[in-house]
Amino acid sequence: MSDHEFPVERTGILNFAAALGETNRIYWDEEYAKATPVGGVIAPPTFAVSSALWNPSYALRGIRQIPAQPEPPPEGGARKSGRGGSSRLLHGEQRFEYHQPLRPGMRLAVRTRPGRSWQKEGKRGGTLRFSESVTEFRDERGELVMTATGVSIITERAVGG
Amino acid sequence: MQGNPKLSAADLAVGASREQVVVENLSRTQIVMYAGASGDFNPIHHDEVFATKGAGVPSVFAHGMLTMGLTGTLLTDWLGDGVLRAFGVRFVRQVWPGDTLTAKGTVRSIAPDGRVEIELVTTNQHGEPVVAGDAVALLPVSSIG
To answer: In this model, does residue B16 exceed pLDDT 90?
Structure first.
């Protein structure tokens, strides 16, 4: 689990909003945004996912690792387990709790801790192991800005795409 | 936290709903844009050879978080900016290039303080759910002029 900084920046918000096909100017037009009660540019509700770009222990962020790290297991692809079988890691659920919107200029402290874990029998994938990770985003005064909770599922057997 | 609501709790009733197409004919380009913007460079989402020959899936497919983000555009277009208090989904089915997704929100409950709970489902062009979940928005109690 990792602790790292997440500087919230306008260009990052613009790129993220563009990737969602957004037409809402609140995400890039400072003049428009200032004239609304929101008072300035904010980030789309799921933007905090891009904090992964600043997470040094996140191997998928595209920054070259020295020494090179092995290719990470694909989210949807077969992964060899130690027992020679294949298993799959899936993103099962995601939840955000918001206290204030993310705004450019915020320098957030990101802290992730493990949450609950449980398992159940699946029809196609054999035993499904669920594990939660809870990530808190706090501003420079230590106030909670948002909480993100993700649930990963590891399936015993690969299930069809 | 001050938002810019588009409507008040009084403008909504339990069972009221709104749906909109949140992406039409999803392009690989948009998936790649999302990879760059989110920092998720898992090759299953952008490398066709890796996806088909390596992982044995029919093609690259969208990040679940892209589908969640697209679903979020329904919420903000409907309810306003900076009004969400919670937003959660379960990823039900993969989303492929060429898919057209429709997000639908239905008011599940309205609290006296203006807290509105919305049930969410986003479906593909075959009517199959791809994500399902819920959201909570804090709206003004009475109508906004």
So the answer is: yes
- Tell me the C-alpha distance between A46 and B89, whole Å: 11
Question: What residues of B are in contact with residue A92 (Cβ under 8 Å)?
Answer: 90-91
Q: How many helices (H) and strands (E) does chain A have?
A: 2, 6
State the pLDDT at residue A63: 75
C-alpha distances in angstroms, A105 versus A20, A26, A28, B78? 22, 15, 14, 27
- Contact by Cβ (8 Å): B131, B90: yes
| A94 contacts B81? CB cut-off 8 A | no
The C-alpha angle B134, B65, B12, rounded to 5 degrees, equals 25
User: Token pair 């990823």 is at which residue?
Assistant: B91
Q: Which of B3, B30, B66 sits opposite A38 (nearest CB)?
A: B3
Whole-angstrom distance, CA of residue A108 vs CA of residue B31: 27
Report which of A149, A155, A38 is spatially closest to residue A104, judged by C-alpha positions.
A38
How large is the ipTM? 0.96
Instruction: Indicate whether this model's pTM tops 0.95.
Output: no
Q: Which of residues 41-100 of A touch B (CB under 8 A)?
A: 42, 44-46, 49-50, 52-53, 58, 60-62, 71-72, 74-78, 90-100
